[in-house]
Design brief:
221 residues, alpha/beta, Rossmann fold, five-stranded parallel sheet, 8 strands, binds cytidine-5'-diphosphate
Length: 221
């Protein structure tokens, strides 16, 4: 089965997708981490973030890998180097939507995502999985929550990691990123017509996980 989980920033997609994949013994793919890795690469090489062909040229030669880390985490490697923590920095978060809007970058990463999903049971989360990457996915979820709730959750998470952005700054970043992600020309963030809407505003992680597992099991019958 192919499970597509899309939605705006900080709705809970990666946390819940990982749990759902574990429960079903499926592969989990965090496509946001791939766009973050592309952004990291462009910044590291000092490339112009509008130069789509230069960035995708380098990206096509780079290797993005995922491997299991401690405590059920997933590590992201770029050309064998662990960039898991670095790609969550405020600098990358602030630039990723610009890089993710470049059509050539999307073309390169979408091809890699489809290749990973081929012949595998997979839970993939992102912005365009149900609409573009896996339009024939067996289950499509559009996960959302209020901006206030999403900002509060990300603030808590960042504070625990020792990051210093204020709640207001995080809320502003989330709103700006959601705007850019939903208004870009190529595969914008949008609920697929056949996706099930799951609002997580008043649900904890376990409740959302169970809700999504129930939707998937219903489909498996
Ligand atoms: O976890 P968070 O919501 O902060 O973001 P993410 O899932 O790591 O994705 C980071 C950024 O990558 C998003 O804001 C989008 O600009 C981009 N992205 C995308 O364009 N398409 C995807 N399938 C996944 C992420
Ligand atoms: O992947 P996405 O950006 O959609 O969100 P996430 O990184 O999975 O979740 C953002 C934060 O919200 C994490 O710290 C989760 O632990 C938390 N969360 C929560 O408190 N309650 C939920 N129902 C879902 C996520």
């Amino acid at each position: 089965m192919k499970i597509a989980i899309d939605g705006p920033a900080s709705a809970g997609k990666s946390t819940i997708s990982k749990k759902v994949a574990q429960a079903l013994h499926y592969t989990y793919l965090d496509t946001g981490a791939m766009y973050r890795a592309a952004t990291y690469l462009a910044l590291k090489l000092g490339l112009d973030l509008n130069d789509a062909s230069k960035i995708s040229e380098h990206l096509a030669q780079a290797k993005i890998d995922f491997q299991p880390g401690p405590d059920n985490t997933q590590q992201v490697l770029l050309n064998g180097v662990d960039i898991t923590a670095t790609i969550r920095s405020e600098q990358i978060t602030g630039a990723v939507s610009q890089v993710a809007a470049l059509p050539e970058v999307r073309q390169t990463l979408v091809a890699q995502q489809r290749k990973i999903a081929a012949a595998k049971d997979i839970v993939m989360d992102g912005r365009d999985i149900g609409t573009t990457v896996l339009p024939d996915a067996d289950v499509k979820i559009f996960m959302t929550a209020s901006v206030a709730q999403r900002a509060q959750r990300r603030y808590l998470e960042n504070t625990q990691k020792g990051m210093t952005s204020s709640l207001a700054e995080i809320k502003k970043d989330i709103e700006l990123r959601d705007y850019k992600d939903s208004h870009r020309q190529v595969s914008p963030l949008k609920q697929a017509s056949d996706a099930v809407l799951v609002d997580t505003s008043n649900l904890d992680i376990e409740q959302v996980t169970q809700k999504i597992l129930a939707i998937i099991r219903q489909k498996m019958k």
